UniProtKB/TrEMBL annotation, chain A:
One of its GO terms (molecular function) is ATP binding. It holds the Pfam family ABC_tran. It comes from Tistlia consotensis USBA 355. This is ABC-2 type transport system ATP-binding protein. Belongs to the ABC transporter superfamily. It comes from the Bacteria. Residues 33-262 form the ABC transporter domain. The lineage of its organism: Bacteria, Pseudomonadati, Pseudomonadota, Alphaproteobacteria, Rhodospirillales.
Automatic annotation (TrEMBL), chain B:
One of its GO terms (cellular component) is plasma membrane. This is Transport permease protein. The keyword Endoplasmic reticulum does not apply. Residues 36-262 form the ABC transmembrane type-2 domain. PANTHER family: DOXORUBICIN RESISTANCE ABC TRANSPORTER PERMEASE PROTEIN DRRC-RELATED.
């Protein structure tokens, strides 16, 4: 793996919640992400069905599920891109359906469903987003990101001409430009080679540790989830079917890796492998479905 | 309104004009990176002006009416292009965000929908200047016809047409946001639906009475009638200007309201993340 220099960010002494400032340390404050009975219907189709979970500051949580399970729909509602049909979404204490702009400057995301303008160079794109987020001392921040994400060599290259790995690094730079307290990543390592994917995971681990950020990760890569995530939220057909630490899920399903757990859930095989009563830290929702 | 000082390590999130400026800069970068985009802006206004300039030269030889107001047609063509380029400049700047799949990034940034409207309006203004200014210079060079002879009223006419073009741009962008890129051609065609009743090349009095009533409901009619009043009769009609500005206000309010409502509908239906090539 190519070694890249680490970059330390200044730690935040206090934690701002929805425009107000809390003196509590982030870990002791309100959840960074809190959704309750979240529902999204498109006509007769229910994409997300009464979903509830929360993510604490400093926690990394994976949102797992097969295609169409409702991961992207959930992330879209968290970002305020999509209005819920029912339930509530609170990010850093703010209702995202009603007042998303109170906290959008403290959040960021990366998704395969969006792109950066392809005709702009990497530097122009990141400069544009730095201005959009009102970053003070923009030049220093851009230099910091260019150095930390190894973008110096492609700074003047058009974004549309980058390789998949380079694009991912630039997208991550955009997602980190405002030093977000909540980072939403939709399949961040899809289409990356193992080396670049491994580097990106290391970078995210450092960022999460240094900034005490809450990270919600939607991924199909189970090894990635086992490595990065403190907790896993399993979705199926828009419903939460299980929520636990990776280790607890493995114990609960009697499996050695999360991929097997994922397949058990996807194929409704959970009951065949349940070796014992529910393990610690695990709570089961919508159990009748399995 | 007082602003809270940012805490140590906390990112303040800038001002509205900072975000609008960022959007304008992003589109200027795009234009700088693509010369065909810039050439296209000036191409049609110039071609239109050249064709109508020759038509004017031909008519000057046979019509005393035209001889009395030699610059009417060319001035009308250029002012019509202000309206057309203004609307297109607004809509194409919006479509660029869809083409580049950047709308989702903008929608989750601190940029608010009304700030997006302001940014698109600024871009429309700049694109119109780039498109129309060369044509006005060439009209002087080729035919000795200067729309600047209109004097200060020219500023008022251009303002009336630009505001209406922004209102139309907001309505067309709303349609594209709601229906998707299938409605993209509307960006080019919408304005021509209004051309017959805009009294650009002929006075509104030539329309049948029922169509005249409709024509007076749009700010283009009093604007072009006002232009003819100056060029043919040498009189400035403030009543027409007031009517045009009042109608502009109504259409701009409707356009902005429809755009902001459509943005909310797009959030309800998940359209902001689905737009793209």
């Amino acid at each position: 793996m190519q070694a890249r220099p680490a970059r330390l960010w200044p730690r935040r002494g206090r934690h701002a919640i929805c425009g107000r400032v809390s003196q509590q340390p982030p870990s002791g404050g309100a959840p960074a992400i809190e959704i309750h009975e979240l529902t999204k219907r498109f006509g007769d189709f229910t994409a997300v069905d009464r979903l509830s979970f929360s993510v604490a500051p400093g926690e990394t949580v994976a949102l797992l599920g097969g295609n169409g399970a409702g991961k992207t729909t959930t992330i879209s509602m968290l970002l305020g891109l999509l209005l819920p049909s029912g339930g509530s979404v609170r990010m850093l204490g703010c209702d995202m359906a009603r007042h998303p702009h109170r906290v959008l400057h403290r959040i960021n995301f990366s998704s395969p469903y969006v792109d950066l303008p392809r005709r702009l160079t990497v530097g122009q794109n990141l400069g544009f987003f730095a201005r959009l987020y009102g970053i003070p001392d923009r030049r220093a921040r851009l230099d910091e990101l260019a150095h930390a994400l190894d973008l110096e060599g492609i700074w003047n290259k058009r974004t549309g001409r980058l390789s998949a790995g380079q694009k991912t690094r630039v997208s991550l730079a955009k997602a980190l430009i405002n030093r977000p307290e909540v980072l939403l990543l939709d399949e961040p390592t899809a289409s990356l080679d193992p080396d670049t994917a491994d580097w990106l995971r290391s970078y995210l681990e450092r960022y999460q540790a240094e900034r005490h950020a809450a990270i919600l990760l939607a991924s199909h890569n189970m090894a990635e989830v086992e490595r990065l995530c403190d907790r896993v939220v399993m979705l199926k057909a828009g419903r939460l079917v299980d929520e636990a630490t990776p280790a607890a899920l493995l114990r609960k399903y009697g499996r050695t890796n999360l991929e097997e757990v994922f397949l058990d859930i996807a194929r409704d095989r959970r009951s065949e492998h349940l070796p014992a009563p529910p393990a610690e830290h695990s709570h089961h929702t919508e159990g009748g479905e399995l | 309104m007082s602003r809270r000082e940012p805490l140590r390590g906390e990112m303040p999130h800038g001002s509205m004009w900072g975000r609008v400026g960022a959007m304008v800069l992003r589109h200027l970068y795009l234009m700088r990176s693509s010369w065909p985009r810039v050439v296209e802006l000036a191409y049609w206004p110039t071609i239109q002006m050249v064709i109508w300039g020759f038509v004017t030269l031909y008519l000057l030889q046979s019509s005393s009416v035209i001889a009395n107001a030699a610059g009417v047609l060319v001035t009308a063509v250029i002012l019509w292009d202000v309206l057309f380029r203004g609307q297109l400049g607004f809509t194409l700047s919006f479509i660029e965000e869809i083409w580049s799949r950047n709308l989702g990034n903008l929608a989750v940034s601190p940029l608010r929908p009304h700030e997006l409207l302001v940014a698109l309006t600024v871009m429309s203004f700049l694109r119109t200047l780039i498109g129309v200014l060369p044509a006005t210079g060439l009209a002087i060079l080729f035919y000795g016809i200067s729309i600047y002879d209109l004097g200060l009223p020219l500023v008022a006419f251009v303002a009336c047409l630009l505001v209406m073009s922004w209102a139309l741009g907001m309505l067309v962008s709303s349609l594209i946001l709601r229906v998707g890129q299938g409605a993209e051609n509307v960006a080019w065609l919408a304005i021509f639906l209004l051309a017959p009743i805009s009294s650009v090349y002929y006075p509104v009095s030539v329309l049948p009475p029922w169509l005249q009533a409709i024509a007076w409901c749009f700010p283009m009619t009093p604007t072009f009638e006002g232009m003819r009043a100056i060029l043919i009769h040498g009189t400035f009609r403030p009543d027409l200007l007031v009517q045009a500005l009042a109608l502009d206000g109504v259409y701009l309010a409707i356009g902005a309201a429809v755009f902001l409502y459509t943005f909310r509908v797009a959030r309800r239906h998940g359209l902001l993340l689905q737009q793209g090539e």
